[in-house]
Design goal:
The complex is a heterodimer.
Chain A: H1 6-22, H2 26-42, H3 49-68, H4 73-93, H5 96-107, H6 122-138, H7 147-155, H8 168-175, H9 182-214, H10 223-228, H11 231-262, H12 280-286, H13 289-303, H14 310-324, H15 329-355, H16 358-377, H17 381-393, H18 402-410, H19 412-421, H20 425-434, H21 437-464
Helix pairs in contact in A: 1-2, 2-7, 3-4, 3-6, 3-7, 4-6, 9-11, 9-21, 11-16, 11-17, 13-14, 14-15, 15-16
Chain B: H1 2-30, E1 36-37, E2 42-43, H2 52-56, H3 59-70, H4 75-87, E3 96-99, H5 107-111, E4 136-140, E5 143-147, H6 152-169, E6 174-180, H7 184-187, H8 199-209, E7 215-217, H9 219-224, H10 241-255, E8 267-273, H11 276-281, H12 284-287, E9 291-296, E10 302-307, E11 314-317, E12 340-345, E13 352-357, H13 360-364, E14 374-379, H14 387-393, E15 398-404, H15 411-419
Parallel strand pairs in B: 6-7, 6-15, 13-14, 13-15
Antiparallel strand pairs in B: 1-2, 3-4, 4-5, 8-9, 10-11, 10-12, 12-14
Helix pairs in contact in B: 6-8, 6-15
Classes of the chains: A mainly alpha, B alpha/beta.
């Protein structure tokens, strides 16, 4: 199931909230969350619930085993088994075809991959469990003795399918016996509404424009379509994708954080206005923060971090970061693309950027980040090269620029709003408001109406999406 | 004080949010469901029947999602609000607007499950030319146009299918072909000329690919002479009966007939017709410019029959479906897209024609009763009988393939025409 759907909003969520808050016992509350999380997960792919439960059970058992044999070689074996097991799950279900293709092309063999459909959220929950078991091994946290509690942590529907990656250590105290309160609930509601708006009104509309120029599943484009584009159309498509992916992903994180808060959880932020960065290093401290911190704590630092072989370590981290995003070379190229700039920044560029006026540093970062999305977008290398050529050839297309100008003008107010929301305008205003209690009261009142407007707009867009006229047929 | 006020505000915020979800949820379960959306011309998704395979593939839940969204309370109102919102997120002062309807392709006809017809032969190869039959809708001032983008290879495969009938039936049956251009062909100002492919070269390419003994009807040139008249609808993808009349005049010229003059023929009109292109775009400018559908009441008496796939089985009926109204007004012609209909006249001149068409042919075919002893109209999409045997049984000596330029460049239609031959 997805958050941005009518069924989630009007059936799933109210039912879950109702049963949750009518259960008094924290144990039952956790069970409500488990049942709803599994239903949420199974709504898309019921069969993969089994994998989720089995892998949770395995890692949970292993963590207790490690706890018992702390300090011995058995603990080390335990943690190794968990890491290998989870990476094997990823290799089997996510990278099977990719790995087999590479083997075939190197050895000239013709193995066929099992070709499983990617189980939803597997990249997220395997990272949940790996980080948990490693933390137990390191002695940072105690192993969770109660399986339902652990299962609730792994499967919690707010962050199960698209993050943020919740670290057990960050929510340890909230897994059992958390203190829900009305202020948190209310703040969670407001956060959820903002996330829904970002997804439904910004990202979904941007996606329609992206599809027009860059293609998607419903509008499959070919090399000839790309060659017919003008450079302006190509740029508009790409910038719209930069908008789409940010609002889609950060909107999802907002909804996850907001939902968590409605149930008394306090998740950490996952995005912090990444497009205002002044360097690539900074961008990655602001973009998908939970992923970056996982790679920092479980790969980069164990490899030696800044202390030894720093460039090799960076290479490995960025190779893996790229690969995490998908089983295709373009994602690895995308990761390595950032490696290059992060390495350059470490070598000399960052010092230079600190000296130049801020706006130049901002432009530098955007000039690297935005074209980077084209590598992310096209899994087909031929299409990728054609699109990049189109971007930088600065030519007119087969149909001129009238249509794209028309698209821009009919979306102008929306575009301005999207660009403003990429900047921390809201936070600046909020800080100013928080300085005086009278302002806060006004703000809290205004927010209520604002939430209603946001929900109203989102529902209309979600219902509008189902408008599906058949012109040439009678029913 | 403000601490308690803030707390109150939080209570109100939570109460309103939860209230909205609960009220919406209850209404969505309790309110009466519609089964058909007239505006969208389709059945609304029904609650899926359970099956194990549907369940384990996850499709069962997907269909419940669709059912829920299709049956949401006050759906029409939400949709029109959503349109208003989308129209207000930018400047709409520009005189043009281009829509990319994600659902408007002939491909819909393939996915429609209400008509269980298989495509008889394998799919035709796409020629991969830019934009082949991908349709976009272009709104200029207060009129909507479809934009043509068909490629030559697919036009050639259309011609090949017509040729195959000619080889099968000639001599004995004279084959005609008439390709109807799209409205934008006649409205293009220089400024927007590049938005669609010009129609005449595409039609010329088809005609050049046809056997020399097939008679080609240059309707496009005759229609062009009247480009300032009301020949295409403002809000619908079809032509008007006047547009069809000019094509009929061109046909008469090719077929050696004298066309009837419209001057003395009484007519009726259906007003406030908001057609398919309005339904697709829901553009407010189109809404303010509704169409009227004129149909002619010829003096010649005619016996009109509705047929079935069984040869020689005809049921007497009426030429015009005068009950058609609102968004279905175009269905007045020949009562809409029936698989086959027959018109018998008092002109005992021995000329008996079959017209193979899609919906564009509906406005055209009635004119032929002024010149033919017998006119049989076959819808290429829905006719399931033995076509060639029917031609013989009815003593047909002329055969017209009349198609709009999109259909002549769409594998679906080409396959359907090819499939009539079994």
């Amino acid at each position: 199931m997805v958050f941005a759907s009518l069924l989630f909003l009007f059936i799933f969520l109210p039912l879950c909230l109702f049963l949750y808050y009518t259960s008094k016992n924290p144990k039952w509350r956790n069970w409500v969350l488990i049942v709803f999380s599994l239903a949420f997960y199974g709504w898309g792919e019921p069969i993969w619930i089994s994998l989720l439960i089995l892998s949770s059970l395995f890692d949970w058992g292993n963590s207790i085993f490690i706890d018992k044999h702390r300090g011995t070689k058995w603990a080390k074996i335990g943690v190794t088994v968990t890491v290998v097991f989870n990476l094997a799950l990823l290799a089997t279900f996510k990278y099977d075809k990719f790995i087999v293709d590479q083997v075939n092309s190197v050895l000239g063999t013709s193995f066929t991959a099992p070709g499983y459909a990617l189980p939803l959220g597997i990249s997220f929950y395997t990272f949940h469990t790996i980080s948990y078991v490693v933390d137990v091994y390191r002695g940072d946290i105690k192993a969770q003795r109660n399986f339902p509690n652990f299962l609730m942590y792994v499967s919690l529907f707010s962050s199960l399918v698209a993050g943020p990656i919740i670290r057990y250590a960050h929510v340890e105290k909230e897994i059992y016996g958390r203190k829900e309160n009305l202020t948190d609930f209310s703040l969670g509601v407001s956060r959820f509404c903002i996330g829904l708006f970002k997804k439904v009104v910004i990202a979904n509309i941007a996606a329609q424009i992206v599809a027009k120029y860059m293609g998607d599943q419903t509008n499959i484009i070919s090399l000839t379509d790309i060659s017919a584009l003008s450079s302006l159309e190509a740029w508009v498509g790409l910038i719209m994708f930069a908008i789409q992916i940010y609002f889609d992903f950060s909107g999802y994180s907002d909804m996850a954080i907001g939902l968590g808060r409605m149930f008394g959880f306090h998740f950490r932020e996952n995005f912090n206005y990444p497009y205002i960065s002044k360097s690539i290093g900074e961008f990655w401290r602001r973009w998908h923060i939970s992923l970056g911190s996982i790679f920092r704590d479980y790969v980069y630092i164990p490899l030696g971090g800044n202390k030894k072989r720093v460039y090799l370590n960076l290479f490995i981290v960025w190779f893996l970061t790229g690969m995490w995003h998908g089983p295709s070379w373009n994602f690895i190229f995308w990761g390595l693309y950032f490696f290059i700039f992060i390495a350059l920044e470490r070598a000399f560029l960052l010092k230079l950027l600190e000296k130049v006026p801020a706006f130049i540093a901002h432009i530098y970062a955007l000039v690297i980040i935005i074209p980077g999305w084209v590598i992310f977008y096209f899994t087909d290398t031929g299409m990728l090269i054609a699109y990049v050529k189109k971007l930088f050839s600065f030519t007119a297309g087969a149909h001129g620029n009238m249509e794209v100008m028309n698209t821009l003008s009919t979306h102008m107010f929306w575009l301005i709003l999207a660009l403003i929301l990429c900047m921390p305008v809201y936070h600046t205003i909020k800080n100013w408001i928080d300085k005086k209690t009278s302002r806060t009261t006004f703000y809290n009142t205004a927010v209520i109406g604002f939430n209603v407007v946001l929900v109203f707009l989102c529902v209309s867009q979600l219902v509008g999406k189902s408008y599906n006229p058949f012109i040439y047929f009678r029913f | 004080m403000s601490e308690t006020t803030n707390k109150k505000m939080h209570i109100v915020n939570v109460a309103i949010f939860c209230g909205l979800l609960i009220v919406g949820g209850i209404a969505s379960l309790a309110m009466k469901k519609q089964t058909v959306s007239v505006m969208e011309n389709r059945k609304l998704a029904a609650f899926p029947d359970y099956s194990d395979s549907l369940f384990w593939s996850g499709k069962y839940f997907k269909q419940i999602d669709e059912y829920y969204a299709d049956n949401f309370p006050l759906r029409d109102k939400w949709i029109s609000f959503s349109d208003k919102f989308k129209n207000s997120i930018g400047f709409s002062s520009s005189e043009i607007k281009i829509y990319d309807p994600t659902n408007d392709t002939e491909a819909n006809e393939k996915t429609d499950t209400t008509k269980k017809e298989e495509i008889i032969s394998g799919p035709l190869k796409d020629d991969g030319a830019i934009g082949e039959v991908k349709k976009r809708v272009f709104v200029f001032k207060n009129r909507a146009f479809e934009m043509f983008g068909g490629g030559p290879a697919i036009g050639k495969s259309y011609a090949d299918v017509i040729n195959s009938y000619n080889k099968l039936l000639s001599p004995g049956i004279q084959v005609y072909n008439l390709i109807i251009p799209v409205a934008l062909e006649f409205e293009l100002t220089e400024k927007y000329a590049r938005l669609q492919k010009p129609n005449r070269p595409a039609i010329e390419h088809i005609y050049n690919s046809l056997d020399s003994n097939i008679k080609k009807v240059w309707a496009i040139d005759e229609i062009r002479k009247h480009r300032g008249e009301y020949i295409y609808f403002n809000t619908d993808h079809h032509w008007t009966s006047l547009g069809a009349y000019y094509a009929y005049r061109a046909f008469c010229h090719t077929a050696g007939l004298t066309p009837v003059s419209l001057d003395s023929i009484p007519s009726k009109t259906k007003n406030s017709f908001l057609g398919s292109l309005y339904r697709l775009t829901r553009d407010p400018k189109l809404e303010s410019n509704p169409d009227s559908v004129r149909y002619y009441l010829f003096r010649d008496s005619v016996n009109f029959f509705v047929g079935s796939s069984a040869i020689g089985y005809w049921v007497k009926s009426k030429m015009y479906g005068e009950g058609a109204s609102g968004p279905n007004s175009y269905s007045v012609f020949l009562q809409g897209d029936l698989p086959t209909v027959k018109m018998e006249t008092q002109h005992k001149n021995g000329r008996k024609i079959v017209v193979v068409k899609e919906s564009y042919g509906n406005a055209f075919a009635p004119f032929l009763i002024n010149n033919y002893e017998k006119v049989i109209v076959v819808d290429q999409r829905y006719y399931t009988g033995d076509f060639v045997a029917m031609l013989k049984a009815e003593g047909i000596n002329e055969l017209l393939f009349i198609n709009n330029i999109f259909a002549a460049h769409t594998p679906f239609h080409i396959n359907k025409i090819k499939g009539l031959k079994k």
